[in-house]
Amino acid sequence: MASIEGQTVHRVLLVDDDDAVREMMSSSLEAKGFEVVAVGGVTEALKYIATESFEVLITDLHMPNAGDGFTVISAMRHSQPTALTMLVSGYPDVKSAMEAIILEADEIVVKPFGVNHLAELVREKLRSQKPADRPNKERVSAILRRCSDLVVKGWLARVKLARELNHLVLADAERTGHLPKLIEDLVVRLNKPITGSPQDSDATYSSAAVLHGELRFAQGYTPEMLVHESRILQVILFGTLKDNLNALDFSLLLPDVMTIADEVDAQLTQTMSSYMKLVNSPNSPKAPKLAISAKSTAA
């Protein structure tokens, strides 16, 4: 924040991929006394956020290539938490929807809008801005680790309501089996460096998934039951993230969600493989119910 002849000059980082819109907004803000750094994409914006200071961020929501306005806002939240953040969108209903769901930006501006109105809105928000009291944002992996017990309880409650799964008489520990260890394996996978879209080679070998298949064989599960309980796990995992939106770091949300889906499917594949080996083994009886317990097969 600079000062010219006693007047405070606020630095604005403006991010918009439309050259004409960016130039018009930049000129309007500069005419109103703001110092503007205007960039056309997420990558360039992130570089400025990491190396320079700003009092205001104005970013378009939808931009091509990697990332979007939420990525830029999340980065600003972490690097410069006191900065005023404004998200611009061309969708009429985005204001109410995003304020209710995301709770990331200080203000959401809906296109079309008068450029003079934008400068006035920025000044008004800066005058009324209160010290930020924002919770530390968490990665998906941190939230799932923190809520692991809740995930297990939610999964168990959902399974008990599923007619396809609850006809077997099992104790809760036998029903949950190796689920806590499977969640921990998922957290480990999420904490690995992101190199792109999930690949089959990224899947983690899970001894818990293998043992889980053996347990389910002994308990009398069918392959359809294995798939059903895996689908319920994904529903509970994503529901847990929804319940923790205020604490969620959105900058890596999309790749993390893709990783969750990939890892849960990989675990199911390993579970199914160990299950089918027993089914096809000439030395194994066909699914003797409760021959082994979750406790006796714990990893």
Could you characterize the architecture of this molecule?
The protein has twelve helices and seven strands. It is an alpha/beta fold. The strands form two sheets. Strands 4-3-5-6-7 form a five-stranded parallel sheet, with helices on both faces. Strand 5 (56-60), helix 3 and strand 6 (84-89) form a beta-alpha-beta unit. Helix 6 packs antiparallel against helix 9.
Low-confidence stretches: 1-6, 287-299
Binned strand content: 5-15%
N-to-C series of helices and strands: EEEHEHEHEHEHHHHHHHH
Estimate percent helicity: 40-55%
Largest sheet strand order: 4-3-5-6-7
Total helices: the number is: 12
Total E-strand runs: 7
Class per helix and strand makeup: alpha/beta
Q: End-to-end distance, in Å?
A: 57 Å
Determine Rg (CA atoms, Å).
Answer: 25 Å
Largest sheet features: 5 strands, parallel
Average pLDDT across residues? 81
Shape: elongated
Brief descriptors of the model:
5-stranded parallel beta sheet, 299 residues, elongated, two-stranded antiparallel ribbon, alpha/beta, 12 helices, 52% helix
Q: Brief overview, please?
A:
With 299 residues, this protein is α/β, with parallel strands linked by helices. 52% of the residues lie in helices and 10% in strands. The strands form two sheets. A five-stranded parallel beta sheet has the order 4-3-5-6-7, with helices on both faces. Strands 1-2 form a two-stranded antiparallel sheet.
Question: Would you spell out the secondary-structure blueprint of this structure?
Answer:
Elements: E1 2-4, E2 7-9, E3 11-15, H1 19-31, E4 35-39, H2 42-51, E5 56-60, H3 69-79, E6 84-89, H4 94-101, E7 107-110, H5 115-128, H6 140-146, H7 148-161, H8 172-176, H9 179-190, H10 207-219, H11 223-243, H12 253-280
Parallel strand pairs: 3-4, 3-5, 5-6, 6-7
Antiparallel strand pairs: 1-2
Helix pairs in contact: 1-5, 2-3, 6-9, 7-11, 9-12, 10-12, 11-12
